Amino acid sequence: MEKNYNRKIDHKKSNYRRKEQNTHGEKPDQNVSEQVLKAMAHRRLTRGKKLKRGFFFTLGAILMAMGIEVFLVPNGIMDGGIVGISIILSHLSGAQLGLFLFFLNVPFFFIGYKQIGKTFAISTLFAISVLSISTYFLHPVPAFTADMLLATVFGGMILGAGVGMVIRYGGSLDGTEILAILLNKKTPFSVGEIIMFFNIFIFAAGGFVFSWEKAMYSILAYFIAFKTIDIVIEGLNESKSAWIISDQHKEIGDAILARLGRGVTYLQGEGAYTGDNKKVIFTVITRLEEAKLKSIVEELDESAFLAVANIAEVRGGRFKKRDIH
Fold first, then answer.
1. Most-buried pick from 77, 99, 194, 257 (CB within 10 A)?
2. What digits encode the pLDDT tens for the residues 114-148?
3. Is 168 buried (19+), middle (13-18) or exposed (0-12) by CB count in 10 A?
4. pTM value surpassing 0.90
């Protein structure tokens, strides 16, 4: 694997140097070229990471299939996107749902390959294949509940958990979002707006095919699945960033270190109106620590500026909480 990687680097290196020499008319710096090319090159995933991804893709696809075949479809409830279209076509034709799920998503596999990359496309194809096979085997399983509300809530949660798991590890189980990304480049609408337009037509069609009552349950299931996806991707332990501007920056920083056990970074700032130099405190906390941080700041400087924002993910650095003495 290392030999193949080095061969790719050498090939790209020669092309890069030729291109740079033609552009600037001078010999490029060899060390800079190598650094740039190593950054550009795509390193293959290790076997352990591939197995981990494969496991969560499989688990996520099976969970989605359970939500569809054991909760939603037996009660005439739909989901949005390609899954919703597949459910309608399967109901009207009597053909297996898994066939529509696979063949309607295949075109988006090629779009994903061009727009997002090879790894994403292969991951998506694998996850959709597992989803299609799982729906085939779960189709004979009787409905877990005949209660429409329970089927909507739990079907949406299980489906959302499965989709979120696949997205978190770099794949997709529905081609609608891939299509929306493509159309977003050619239209004035955002990705979210395009997906919303698609789903309005899909749920409206579901109202004619099933019933308007079931269409309303379908919208509720979609909303529950949507929120569950966010929870799975971002996690329940949501982190927050805090920016504090105060003349008592040293005291506040020391208090955060001692009383919250969180790391603090001092940044240099300048007031646009006054031109005064200010120290800006930056720290990352959990939502459970937000109230305590506010009390620390208020206690040491009531006039301090404090801004708190949600963070989807924190990696690296020294985010791990220290012991509080």
1. 77
2. 766 777 888 888 889 999 999 999 988 888 888 99
3. middle
4. no
